[in-house]
Specification:
With 306 residues, this protein is mainly β. The chain has a single domain, classed as Distorted Sandwich (Beta-galactosidase, Chain A, domain 5), CATH 2.70.98.10. The chain contains two helices and 23 strands. The strands form six sheets. The chain has an eight-stranded antiparallel sheet, with no helix packed on it. Strands 16-15-17-20-21 form a five-stranded antiparallel sheet. The radius of gyration is 18 Å and the shape is globular.
């Protein structure tokens, strides 16, 4: 286990990952040792203030979102209430290192207000694959309504090529400034507009957030012709049956002009359709963690030559 100024360093013969336990268990970096390619977006802003909200902290790398992605509050038909902050309860908290060696690390974070613990083991399953194994353990006497979403922001440029899973025939539009109505479904079959899959251009000034229908095969990929490599996410479709997709091309997200010069790209394996529980409920994809139960799942991130 190496230690850099950024966090814990994991290495295989082909990849180097940096994990930051004190920064929400963020996977700061995933880099090819052959090409030097950095596969995660790196936030180039000079200063951050997470007290103003998630978007004002360093959004680079891969964060964890639970029990929601967007801030939400409400009451279920069964009487349980929820009041969840923006991007959930994990990204602002320090995680505890339970075990670590040169190829992997196990971290945990307890959320007292939900009476539950989230554990993640990150390790190189092979020289090409970083495997993430999760447990969300309830210590609660009540059900916990939730959505879990991985939240990796990926490197992207004008050459980046997107590959959706073949069985993702349609997607729910959770957000868009392209004229597509939010809350509707769009086909993913056949040619797609550049605002969705590229070619990416900053002058598009677009943002699109989609969620696939239920998948039978859990995968998605991004190809990088500049380095001759492909990054592939695979995940358990029984536990993470949907895939969130974000594409921002020069969109001024915060109104300060910074992101007009940036591409933001994300594949987000997730339990439900929507970033907040209201959409989960409307789409019948809400998850509930039973008292004393454990929800386990895995995600693989693989880098291969094209």
């Amino acid at each position: 286990m190496g230690i850099s100024e950024d966090g814990l360093v994991l290495e295989s013969a082909k990849l180097r990952a940096v994990v930051e336990p004190g920064n929400g268990a963020k996977i700061r970096s995933l880099r090819s040792l052959r090409s030097g390619k950095e596969f995660f977006y790196q936030d180039s802003r000079r200063s951050f203030d997470g007290s103003k909200g998630y978007s004002y902290h360093d959004i680079g790398g891969m964060d964890e979102c639970f029990p929601a992605v967007a801030a939400c509050r409400g009451q279920l038909d069964t009487g349980e209430t929820y009041d969840y902050p923006d991007h959930g309860c994990l990204w602002e908290r320090a995680w505890v290192v339970a075990d670590a060696n040169s190829r992997g690390v196990t971290l945990s974070c307890t959320i007292p207000e939900l009476c539950c613990t989230v554990r993640r083991r990150s390790y190189f399953e092979t020289d090409e694959t970083l495997r993430l194994e999760y447990e969300i353990v309830s210590h609660n006497t009540q059900m916990i309504p939730f959505v879990y979403s991985a939240h990796p922001l990926l490197a992207a440029d004008e050459q980046t090529v997107i590959h959706f899973p073949a069985d993702a025939a349609s997607a729910y539009v959770a957000g868009a400034n392209t004229g597509v109505a939010v809350g509707t479904w769009m086909s993913l079959s056949g040619p797609q507009p550049a605002a969705v899959i590229g070619p990416f251009r900053l002058e598009h000034r677009t943002v699109v957030k989609l969620f696939t229908e239920k998948l039978t095969t859990g995968w998605a990929a991004v190809a990088y012709p500049d380095s001759g490599e492909r990054l592939t996410f695979t995940f358990d479709p029984e536990k993470l049956p949907h895939l969130g997709y974000l594409s921002c091309q020069g969109n001024d997200n915060l109104g300060d002009g910074h992101f007009t010069g940036e591409f933001l790209l994300a594949f987000e394996p997730t339990t439900g359709i929507g970033d907040e529980l209201g959409t989960n409920i409307r789409t019948n994809t809400l998850k509930q963690l039973q008292p004393g139960a454990t929800f386990s799942f895995w995600i693989r991130i693989t880098v291969e030559d094209i």
